[in-house]
Amino acid sequence: MGVVYVDVLVIINALIGWFVLRAAAALASLEMKPIRLCIGALAAGFSSLLILFNLSPPLALLLKVLCLAAIIFISFQISNPRVFFKALLWYILLNMLLGGIASFAAQSGKVIYDNYSVYIYVPPLLLVFCTLLMYVIIQLAVWIFGRPQPDKTVIIALKAADFEMSGNALLDTGFAVSDPLTGNAVMLLCAPFPVYIDAYFKSGEISSGVRLLPISTASGSTLLPAVTASASIDKRKCRDITAAFTKEVFAGDFKAILNADTSVYF
Predict the structure, then answer these.
(1) Of 114, 145, 176, at which residue does a domain stop?
(2) Is residue 30 a contact partner of residue 40, using CB atoms and an 8 Å limit?
(3) Which residue, of 145, 170, 203, is where some domain finishes?
(4) pLDDT (0 to 100) of residue 73
(5) Do 195 and 136 reside in the same domain of the chain?
(6) Among 19, 169, 234, 243, which is least packed, fewest CB within 10 Å?
(7) pLDDT tens digits for 18-43?
(8) How many Cβ atoms are within 10 Å of 75's Cβ, its own excluded?
(9) Which structural domain, as residue segments, surrounds residue 59?
(10) CB atoms < 10 A from the CB of 59, how many?
């Protein structure tokens, strides 16, 4: 495999890891804390030492995946699994992009494949230059097209017959649904359900006060059980709305979905 200088390997990969993590944070709209980012970069540097061990392919693949996930976990304070995997995906893609840039810049360099990692004999300064080039490209793209916006949520409190709930609601500009019967805004909620809504999903029983509301989503049109309720946003004045219920599980830290323009109504 040739001579590998451990100190150079760790330092160069830590420096590269710092820039790649910053680029991943920009693309995933993550808050960056310098201390955590530095620790994550050091973890990225030390993870490069996997090349020194003669591991079986399954174990090498497992350790590679665990290292990548651990680096993201260390670098960013993420509690939402969806956001975590989004950041992890960007981190993997950026590493692949950097590998492509480095291999193109050193086409005559010798390539080593070991422990599910590709190592190219590239001068350290050239590798750092490639990293800076990739980082500048990502930052320029973010500056031109804008940083991806995180989900905007509000705190809601909702009351209906024999049912109360409170929590975060996602403001979604794509959810443009109104109640054709009352003209009220519609709020889409997932479990837990009131008893009468649970009865509908289990047996199709429609209790008093429950009606079916046509809802159009990306997956198609459907009828969902709905009731009239009273709701407030961020402790503002209560308004009448139509609460529709779905068995789908929301992929995020929120219990309801509301049209962004509807929030002005409260």
Answers:
(1) 145
(2) no
(3) 145
(4) 93
(5) no
(6) 234
(7) 888 988 888 887 878 889 999 999 99
(8) 27
(9) 6-145
(10) 12
Angstrom distance (rounded) from CA 12 to CA 44: 10
Strand spans (E) along 27-162: 111-114, 117-120, 153-160
Output the CA torsion 70→71→77→80 (10° steps): -60
Q: pLDDT for 177-228, tens place per residue?
A: 777 788 788 888 887 888 888 888 888 888 888 888 887 765 667 888 888 8
Residue type, 14: A
* Dist. CA 50–CA 116, nearest whole Å: 9
Q: Are 92 and 27 in contact (CB under 8 A)?
A: no
3-class secondary structure, 136? helix
The model scores a pTM over 0.85 = no
CB-based contact 243:227 (threshold 8 Å)? yes
Comparing C-alpha atoms, which of 121, 21, 132 is closest to residue 78? 21
Task: Report how far residue 253's alpha carbon sits from residue 153's, in angstroms, rounded to the nearest whole number.
Answer: 9
Parts of the chain with a pLDDT under 50:
1, 115-116
Q: Which of 119, 246, 79, 266 has the alpha carbon at shortest distance from 256?
A: 246
In this structure, what token pair is assigned to residue 53? 């061990």
Q: How many domains, in total, are found in the chain?
A: 2
